[in-house]
Amino acid sequence: MAANRSCSHSKSFSDLKFSFLLMSFLLVGIASAQLSSNFYVTSCPGALTNITSAVAAAIRNEARIGASLLRLHFHDCFVNGCDASILLDDDPGTNFVGEQTAFPNVNSIRGLDVIDSIKSKLESICPGVVSCADIVAVAARDSVNILGGPTWTVPLGRRDSTTASRDTANSDLPGPSLDLSALIAAFSKKGFNANELVALSGAHTIGLARCVLFRNRIYNETNIEPNFAASLKANCPSSSGDNNLSPLDAISRTIFDNAYFIDLVNKKGLLHSDQQLFNGGSTDSQVNSYRNFPETFRTDFANAMIKMGNLSPLTGTNGQIRINCGKVN
Ligand code: HEM
Ligand SMILES: *[C@@H]1O[C@H](CO)[C@@H](O)[C@H](O)[C@H]1NC(C)=O
Ligand SMILES: *[C@@H]1O[C@H](CO)[C@@H](O)[C@H](O)[C@H]1NC(C)=O
Predict the structure, then answer these.
(1) Which residue has the least CA distance to atom 4 on ligand 2?
(2) DSSP string, 91-157
(3) How far is the CA of 203 from the centre of ligand 3 (A)?
(4) Please, are residues 223 and 180 in contact by the beta-carbon 8 Å criterion?
């Protein structure tokens, strides 16, 4: 900057303005670039196909892992942006505390081993190039698509954080006991409107949840179909079996379709928060519409996922490309 300033007095004012604009543009360009879908085309041409084939293999091994990988991206992005902060392990040696022990994550998030094994493969073909945050974003997209859902082009170039925040994970990840107004507020805090909340919630068309998180709903709530509640109680006793699992979408637990919205209209939402989206409130009409028009859901879900993937990424020279997703370089 000093060099620029000392030689610029010989220039006209408009030249000066132009240099300043150019300089700012370059500086901003280096510090924070836009994500772009061709980010690894020359630096790691095999990156995306290798991720896709590893995700496909993981899903062949266990269909649920697709749901777990999708949720990992959500829980990464909603806490200080899509920066792989969720992948940083707690480290008693350095007193580092990450997000994995936050309430919404502990005993709950899965798929870290899949991301680690993809990362080590990519480190062997193009060392130090592909970020953990991008791997998570692509793995989420591939999971949805492999399980029958839509696909989309993932903007790339996210970098990995050197920090994590358990407090923000606790405060910003929505919990299953939230009412509609609190769900709308939690998504609004991240820049999403109620329509996008409903679209993204359609992710619960795949995956499982633990008894402890829906027990109160099946024993105490009245906006639940009685036979559905009774069948769930068999695997979720009133005071034991906290970790017993039930599908979020009982119609087709491993297929990414619009059946979640059919469930909601039938009062068969598993979580309290699920049924809130169809409980006589402002989001009922959209749930009905996704129930009737699966293509609309597919399109809206894909667009909302792209938007979620753009939540304050680290780019340019910010952050780092972690070598091991579980720890800062
Ligand atoms: C609207 C607010 C949301 C709430 C309150 C919520 C809450 C939950 C809860 C409580 C579970 C079960 C966790 C467990 O049993 O340990 C779960 C699972 C899941 N969530 Fe959400 N979630 C929400 C939104 C989302 C979004 C936006 C996505 C992705 C775009 C998502 C994807 C998933 C998936 C795929 C699973 C199943 C994971 C697995 O089987 O491993 N959720 N969610
Ligand atoms: C992984 O990337 C390498 C290097 O680009 C490529 O040769 C290979 O075909 C890729 N593997 C898969 C399964 O896409
Ligand atoms: C049902 O609600 C009561 C009153 O809030 C509560 O004490 C009880 O634990 C709930 N039952 C279950 C199974 O969650």
Answers:
(1) 46
(2) BTTTTB--STTSTTTTTT---HHHHHHHHHHHHHHSTTTS-HHHHHHHHHHHHHHHTT----PPPB-
(3) 28
(4) no
Question: Which one of 59, 65, 71 would you pick to mutate in the ligand 1 pocket, going by the greatest count of ligand atoms within 8 A of its CB?
Answer: 71
Q: Is 272 a catalytic residue?
A: no
Q: Which of 9, 73, 75, 272 is catalytic?
A: 75
Q: In this structure, what is the dihedral angle of CA atoms 169, 221, 271, 178, given to the nearest 10 degrees?
A: -30
- Residue 215 Cβ inside 6 Å of ligand 3? The answer reads yes
pLDDT in tens, 319-329: 999 999 999 99
Which domains occur in the chain, in start order? Answer: 47-174 (1.10.520.10), 180-308 (1.10.420.10)
CA of 14 relative to ligand 1 center, distance in Å: 54
Annotated ligand binding at 205? The verdict is yes
Question: In a 10 Å sphere around its CB, with 0-12 CB exposed, 13-18 middle and 19+ buried, how is residue 21 labelled?
Answer: exposed
Q: What is the pLDDT of residues 273-302, one digit of tens each?
A: 999 999 999 999 999 999 999 999 999 999
